[in-house]
Amino acid sequence: MFPLLKNCLVAKHGINYEILVRCSGLSASKAYSTKSNNGSKNIVFVDGVRTPFLLSGTQYKNLLAYDLARHSLVCLQKKIDFPKEIVDYIVYGTVMQEVRTSNIGREAALAAGYSEHTPAHTVTMACISSNQAITTGMGLIACGVYDAVVAGGVEFMSDIPIRHSRRMRSLMLQANKAKTMMNKLTLLASIRPAHFVPDLPAVAEFSTGETMGHSGDRLAAAFGVSRKEQDDYALRSHTLAARAQQEGNLSDVMPFKVQGVDQVVDKDNGIRVSTEEQLAKLKPAFVKPYGTVTAANASFLTDGASAALIMSEEKALQLGLKPKAYLRNFTYVSQDPVDQLLLGPSYAIPKILNKAKLDVKNIGVWEIHEAFAGQICANLKALDSDLFAQKFLKKSEKVGVPDLNKWNAWGGSLSLGHPFAATGVRLATHTANRLIKEDQQFGLIAACAAGGQGVGMIMERYPGAKV
């Protein structure tokens, strides 16, 4: 269906190692399905939900991130039908923070009717913020501190915080402290036109000043990923997402009646199945005129929220709940944020496989965050490269290429959308649901994140689980 997609797996062709150099199997035990591999208590993923993921500036544009987060928490409880009082702790992620709801996890939980005695905190780790929410909850459960944790994340790109310039902020703070009218008039007289230039947030690395799109273009060039390969992968993502939507596989989406919007919002609205010809006409979005990253082969600014219930297996069974999967292992990685910003999966995948005592062929479900099509193709090439493995992973041979029939089978961030802090729970919920629907044992989640960081997680289908 997409013949040129296969080209992105041929690692020996077109990798520019000069750019990369600047930056500095065991088989599975089938008893693993009922016993943790490290002797600690079993932690289960009961279920997860999300709002529809929408292009920023569309139906959610007049809301707050708080509204989306609240909806995810309300829908999670309704779908699973658990008493809210059993939740011991809430960890919620966000990246672009609304100052009025700085601890959005707590504010959304109160608004959603969770107990006022349930503590909550907010985490941020860029695109893997809700992965961090899940694994923080796993740590609390593993240590015996709590039995039931809700993890989630929200992003609202329709209304990002824009500040006055620093000079204007300084004057306003001084004015607030001014005691006399003369002091206030003096400060007012010192205002200049330049004071009114706003301080705009940038989707760029603070340490490098470079946007992720530029990094994506450079990574694609380093691995010899063509524009055609990227467009083919983007077309694959949208085609699979459209099919999953039509077949009802996106059952984690909870309809949302938005005030002021006539129709109930009940599906992701960023899925666009174009033609190869239409994709080829788009101009480069970042490196002009020779770049290969376009608006169509990159993830888009998205509004959305997600939430999941994780518990000790003992507590879930005691409450009569039916888990979907075990949360088995996780790891975080970080590398050079200049030339390897988006290579998190290439580092996290071998590390988590080794930790779980699995290899590529044991994984039946792959859910990998798609920041850019070029980033995905580059990571696939890295996994299929002996030279990359030896030079950067300190392994004797390559990790190997996953079966693409098991890779993001319901689409990914390129098509479904990418609300930064909400994507991690979406990946986990899709992994759990796909494990059941596709009758697989192990699923692997991986994602890159700003700062050159990444995550890898292993989930295992729960015996007898149903969607």
How would you characterize the overall build of this protein?
- The protein starts with 16 loop residues before the first helix and ends in a 6-residue tail after the last strand.
- Strands 1, 2, 3, 4, 5, 6, 7, 8, 9 and 10 form a ten-stranded mixed sheet that branches.
- α2 packs across α3 (104-111) and α4 (129-142) packs across α15 (423-437).
- The protein has one domain: Peroxisomal Thiolase, Chain A, domain 1, CATH 3.40.47.10.
- The protein is globular and about 75 Å long.
- The chain has helices at 17-21, 65-80, 104-111, 129-142, 166-177, 181-189, 212-222, 227-246, 276-281, 313-318, 344-356, 373-383, 386-393, 413-416, 423-437; strands spanning 43-50, 54-55, 89-93, 120-123, 148-155, 302-312, 325-334, 363-368, 442-449, 453-461.
- The longest helix is centred in the middle third of the chain and has 20 residues, at 227-246.
- With 467 residues, the protein is an alpha/beta fold.
Helix content: 25-40%
Number of domains in the coordinates?
A: 1
The backbone outline, from C-alpha atoms, is globular
Class derived from helix and strand content: alpha/beta
Looking at the overall shape, the CATH architecture is 3-Layer(aba) Sandwich
CATH topology: Peroxisomal Thiolase, Chain A, domain 1
CATH homology-level superfamily: Thiolase/Chalcone synthase
Low-confidence stretches: 9-14, 17-30
Q: How many alpha or pi helices?
A: 15
Query: How many strands in all?
Result: 10
Strand proportion:
15-25%
